[in-house]
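agent> call fold_tool(seq_1)
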Amino acid sequence: MVCGPLLVTIACLVISSTGARADSEYERELKQLVDRRNSAAAAAAAPINDKFRAEAEQLLRQATQSGNTEAAKRIKAAIEDAAGHPTDEMKDLHKQLVGSTWTAGNPNQMRPGLGATLTFTDTQVNPGGYLYEVDSRNTVTILFKGGDRQVMLLDKDGKQLKLTFGTSDYVYNRTSP
């Protein structure tokens, strides 16, 4: 009779371990399904998000140039919400800018107030000693001393800063780090 309860205990352990293995196999397969679904959803949403971001950044430039700071703040918030983790990305962009030098794509055609070469320090754009803000993962706003603001967008490659002033577009190319 002693073997009876021991045999039952062993049988229960075998059954429960088989069930545990089956559960972990299903959990692993479920995780793979969820990962595939998330990857497919991200891939499908990427073009939509890119288009939103481009159009929202253009709207942000317009709002900033017209001096509508409240609208600009709301637009920035929407762009940051779409970006996912703006705080980390903004810190990364700030790190990328510090110590970098940018040269006007056409030195004969520059935005008034900006030099042919721009150098970013931790807090300023030189020449001029203008303060700047990193507004999102790819947007920088230069704060001119007279109160004017200029939004600049970093391209996807990180090699050009683009801006619009009035009806003209300007480009600064990265020349060092």
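agent> call fold_tool(seq_2)
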Amino acid sequence: MSHEPITIKPISEVAQFLKNLIPANMPDNYAIKPMFKNIASEEDIRKGIIAFRDFLYLLCDRLAIDGHLYAKPPKKPKSVMDYPFLHYITNMLVDIGYYGKLSEATASKIPAASQKECLEFLILCGFSNNPIMLTGLKVMSIADMELREGRRYWNDNNLLRCDYRLIKAEATDVLDILKDYLHPLPEKVQDFAVKLHKRYTDLGMTCVTLIDDQHHFAYAYLKNSRKVLSPRDKYYKRVWEFSISLKNGYCLVVRAKKTDEYADIIETFPPYLREKIAQGYGCDRKLRNERCQMGCQGIRIPLDESILDIAGDLETWLNKETRDGSKKNQTKN
């Protein structure tokens, strides 16, 4: 398949995107998994993670201002945020937190000149021997190495998200996670997204979270599945999702498959939504003789204030697409 040429985003945009993924509201009190209790008290661990979160804010702010002096794109980028400097920084932080030093494996992948630049940049961001922040880094590095779902890759930046939920003794409700990710959006848009989440989970859909080059909150009917499904398998069964990526921003994405059954209803929708549905989705090359733009993921609607004008129509549309699945679950339960 022929893919579109990748145009890498400016490091300032990458920095703001990464900053938006950092949890804005961390609880003051939560139980921590026993495996971390030999590192520090629970209170100090929580304080350490907040200190590390605050350091990451400074890192993102500094990237936005001076990142262009350090972060250079590769000749053939693999994604819109493929900056080797970011991978170097992330892996150095993980090593410092996990091993207390730069591992041989990491050192062999980072040129000596780049190691020096990374250390200079970390110092510029306020990285120092702050014991409480280093406690947070240590805990989050262990979580990134040992507790994350799926394999850890060299070129991911998950540590920079400061996912404190990995260390919690109790699982976090997926709605709370969704709210964390929605926090940069206008309040009414957040409310609309939360409303959709509650409505369709109440109807029996499961919200599946998945992180690759995008962040997904996907909704699927899974209650009657007889197989043990991986997160990826569950994601493939989605009907619709919230998708967050640097390339496309925040979107509502629908994999509509029943539009022929309610064509009369679609005719009542505003022109913009009618046109979106009429375009359909699938392989961009086959449908429109265009390079791949991930059109196979579904019909993409920007999740911004413009969505409020068609909120009622979107709910009607999703109701039609999820109707049969909901009835099927009600019959079998």
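agent> summarizing second result for user.
Residues 264 and 274 are 11 Å apart (CA to CA). The first helix runs from residue 11 to 21.
agent> awaiting next instruction.
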